[in-house]
Design a protein that fits this description.
5 helices; alpha+beta; Arc Repressor Mutant, subunit A
Length: about 110
């Protein structure tokens, strides 16, 4: 795999590498929501959630839609929803191994 392709894949996966971002994705998986509606579902401050929403937009996972004074966020498409569901399915199969993985590899 070319380095450029690998870098793009790593950038894409970065969107899934944070607990708050996963909570946000789960929160909007089935329905678009405003920041305040997301805050009801996610453990984080408004500024933190807004920063993570910007990251998720930058990773191409979500889109925003302005309506009046409110911004509504939703998943980019059904493929992203399917990917989130696949993560849950695969995790069910490998959860024992994941729970025993206590090492974190830092970026080089």
């Amino acid at each position: 795999m070319a380095t450029q392709d690998l870098d793009l894949k790593v950038k894409f996966l970065h969107g899934f590498s944070n607990k708050i971002r996963i909570q946000i994705l789960d929160s909007i998986k089935d329905k678009e929501k405003t920041v305040s509606q997301i805050m009801d579902d996610v453990d984080g401050s408004q500024s933190s959630i807004s920063q993570h929403l910007a990251c998720l937009r930058g990773c191409g996972l979500i889109v925003g839609r302005q309506e009046g004074k409110y911004m509504y966020y939703r998943l980019l498409n059904d493929k992203v929803r399917h990917l989130l569901n696949m993560f849950d399915d695969v995790l069910m199969d490998v959860q024992t191994g994941v729970m025993s993985c206590d090492r974190q590899i830092d970026d080089e």
